[in-house]
Amino acid sequence: MAQTKNASHPKGLYVLFATEMWERYNYYGMRAILVLFMTKALLFSKEFSSHLYGGYTSLIYLSPLIGGFIADRFWGNQRSIITGGLIMALGEFVLFFCGSTYTSNAELSQILFFSGLGFMIAGNGFFKPNISALVGQLYPKGDTRIDSAYTIFYMGINVGGALGPFICGLVGDTGNPADFKWAFLVGGIGMLISVAIQLIYHRKFVKDPDGNTLGMEPTNSQPISRNPIIMTIGMLLLVMVSTGMLYLDSGLASIKHIGFTINGIEIGTALFTNLIFLLVASIVTIAAIIFTDKTLSSIEKSKVLVIFTVSFFVVFFWSAFEQAGASLTFFADEQTNRDLGFFVVPASFFQSLNSVFVVGFAPLLAWLWVRLGKHDPSSPTKMALGLFLLAMGYLWIAFGVKDVQPGIKVSMIWLLGMYALHTLGELCLSPIGLSLVNKLAPLKFASMLMAVWFTANAFANYLAGALSKLYPEAGKSKNILGFGIENNFDFFIMFVFMSGAASLILFFLSKKLQSLMK
Ligand code: GLN
After folding, report:
1. How far, in Å, from the CA of 154 to the mean position of ligand 1?
2. pTM, two decimal places
3. In contact, 166 and 352? CB cutoff 8 Å
4. CA 493 to ligand 1 center in whole angstroms
5. Residues 225 and 366 in one domain
6. Do residues 220 and 318 share a domain?
7. Do 312 and 210 share a structural domain?
8. Residues framing ligand 1 (Cβ under 6 A)
């Protein structure tokens, strides 16, 4: 029976909270120094680093499709979380060795770098979807505490997201590139803490309302699939595929011999070297499977159409938002006055701000939606508002850099204000969109439509890397659709137009979408 009064949460929620918190600490701590490590230690150009950042974070959102599938069919959630966590910790340690060898052995360190990222991608794929799936299962179906459980869990994500860049930045982003390795090391240690929490507390506390431990292997799974040798080989294969895809997408590999040509265009090479084709193929395949399904009613198909439409709009949101890990970190590093007199704030610290603001603002927004009562805007309208706030964040920082001479650093207040507005936007769009997908998806395609949401994130991150390549640099001419990007003002205004236009269109579509949802 649905419980309405009991507001206390099962202890298992706090086990999942702590597990996720330490994993996000590891992920965001590493991401905070990633482009700095690439440009200052590995001496990659900003454009190339941006491209790799996009490829890496894109695959981070694509690998959960495999991790979710394997957990549902074979391993169960807990085994997948632990395996994914260990693989990610290994990834951090590989990157630690990369950070220790880049001066003595450049070739080795490059191999270590790509493999380290491959480990992170594969590990995340098994960790992230499976931990999120467990939260709701702690409660009876329809329990009113589920929404607040996800809010608490989102807090865990962001406590980790705030701590990671802070601690990893403190030990790694010191001004001496040889120190970056320490950030990878402390990131990896955080990941091991997360795995230890799972191992020690999961069986005891993470239980369904009937007292059965959650996340165990599915009853029909073949024991052979859990054979440690098979598991190890499978994971290593995934690490290799992830590493390979990232490497091929980077364009470093010359693989002309596996390319084939149609009308002079090298189709094979393009397919293998550009992740974007893989992303398009995933979306088209999923759309074809769902829309050709004869058992779905036209009402269900309308709802699916809404999911595809809002997923399209979130691509515009995250591709501008996720500049945080790339161009905005270059901007914090080079164009922001970070000297407090007694302490120079490391550029990586700015990646904590979003999470700090989430923890501060989330209760405020939750209160606001309740307060608005029956005037509470519809989900698509809230998402349009999220895009609008994102545009406002970029408008704010665009004013901060307007007419500032090259070489002059601006106040930190511009990045601070921008991240505050971006976070308000995130809180209007991200949790709302996620629950919209959950509510609208026909049961039969629930996981596949969650995959659409993840793939939208993957697209967006790929685009984020591509857009970050336009970050203005002296002596390089950059342009988008014929518009030149000469300075920081032009760069930030580009995002104002992009997210502003998306917001406006979604706003006008929201009535139509609402009618399709009914
Ligand atoms: N910051 C959140 C997390 O790390 C959400 C990110 C996203 O959905 N793009 O889980």
Report:
1. 9
2. 0.93
3. yes
4. 24
5. no
6. no
7. no
8. 24, 157, 161, 318, 430, 457
